[in-house]
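Please fill in the sequence for the structure shown.

STRUCTURE ENCODING:
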């Protein structure tokens, strides 16, 4: 069994994406960035909180950006501790790992995000547009409130210069002030649309119920299991 390698990460910058969501820019102790693929995550360790196995956080930056970030929502002990960190603070975490990425360079990508589950999709979108700008990407991003639709401005700016990126935003708990967005939950019909999606790869990330329901809905509509990749998070 492979032993997990733990490293010390230093907080170099901090951005408040919303009142409850923070992006931390990190480096290793020597100032370098670990190597990784978009969609991977690190496991953060705070043994003083009584959870020795640690908690996983997706990487929100793309390797081509020459930064290394995680984006965290303050909803539990671990995430609140991360969001309260200051510049120069440090913590122990694993090197990046996980298998939540596409092996293809051509198949259309359909990304379905619930809440903070959009984090790995930012990395995927940024890297794909950089290296494979003609690859088709559809992002469906859902959040309880409009202010928690993080990265929305950035995604919209990217879509203005890349016609292969299609964006759909959903707000479930309030009347969204943006008339272009939808005030309800994501439905399977929104994901599949009216086009043949047999060649698409579907990536779903969000809470356990969100991922379960979307996965089941796609399977019920005939999407092959091997074309669906999921990642669910816990409140931590």
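FILLED IN BY: designer on duty
SEQUENCE:
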């Amino acid at each position: 069994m492979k032993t997990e390698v733990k490293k010390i990460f230093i907080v170099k910058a901090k951005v408040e994406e919303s009142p409850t969501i923070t992006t931390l820019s990190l480096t290793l102790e020597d100032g370098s960035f670990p190597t990784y693929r978009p969609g991977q995550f690190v496991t953060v360790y705070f043994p003083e909180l009584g959870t020795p196995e640690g908690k996983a956080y997706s990487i929100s930056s793309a390797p081509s950006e020459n930064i290394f970030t995680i984006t965290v929502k303050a909803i539990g002990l671990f995430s609140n501790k991360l969001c309260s960190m200051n510049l120069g603070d440090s913590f122990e975490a694993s090197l990046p790992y996980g298998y939540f990425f596409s092996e293809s360079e051509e198949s259309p990508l359909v990304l379905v995000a619930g809440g903070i589950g959009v984090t790995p999709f930012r990395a995927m979108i940024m890297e794909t547009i950089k290296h494979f700008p003609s690859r088709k990407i559809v992002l469906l991003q859902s959040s309880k409130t409009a202010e928690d639709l993080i990265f929305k401005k950035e995604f919209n700016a990217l879509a203005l210069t890349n016609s292969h990126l299609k964006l759909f935003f959903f707000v479930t708990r309030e009347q969204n002030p943006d008339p272009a967005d939808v005030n309800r939950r994501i439905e399977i019909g929104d994901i599949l649309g009216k086009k043949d999606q047999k060649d698409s790869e579907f990536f779903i990330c969000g809470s356990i119920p969100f991922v379960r329901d979307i996965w089941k809905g796609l399977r019920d509509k005939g999407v092959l299991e091997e074309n669906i990749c999921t990642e669910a998070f816990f409140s931590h």
